[in-house]
Design brief:
single chain, 120 residues, mainly alpha
Length: 120
């Protein structure tokens, strides 16, 4: 039994660290998606999906590395708050933009503006 405990104590920091790094990389990918997507309605989608996933992985890694159950409870509370508010806020933002009259970019409009001017 002590051998199993030694293995778990050796693996625990690696698993927690790897989850935190994957979460950080996912947040970076989401940030790149926000910059690269063509219109307003796709950008909040990229932000809310990847940020929620990145926070989930990062907080899970932190929970594995946590020294006490109180810290784990606080991390779960933070995760629950972000899990509920990030997609809801993104939806409210897109709904407000649509209500204000902002139209999504469709079809051929996805090409660069300089290419659209040449066709006209």
């Amino acid at each position: 039994m002590p051998e199993v405990l030694d293995i778990l104590l050796f693996v625990k920091p690696w698993v927690g660290g790897i989850l935190c790094v994957i979460g950080a990389l996912l947040a970076l990918i989401g940030s790149i998606g926000v910059l690269r997507f063509p219109d307003f309605f796709t950008r909040p989608h990229a932000a809310s999906i990847t940020d929620t996933s990145a926070v989930t992985l990062g907080l899970l890694g932190m929970a594995i590395l946590a020294p006490s159950w109180l810290v784990v409870f606080k991390l779960v509370a933070i995760w629950l708050f972000i899990f509920l508010t990030s997609p809801t806020g993104s939806h409210a933002l897109a709904n407000a933009a649509h209500t204000a009259g902002l139209q999504p970019v469709l079809g051929r409009d996805l090409r660069r503006p300089e290419n659209r001017e040449e066709e006209a």
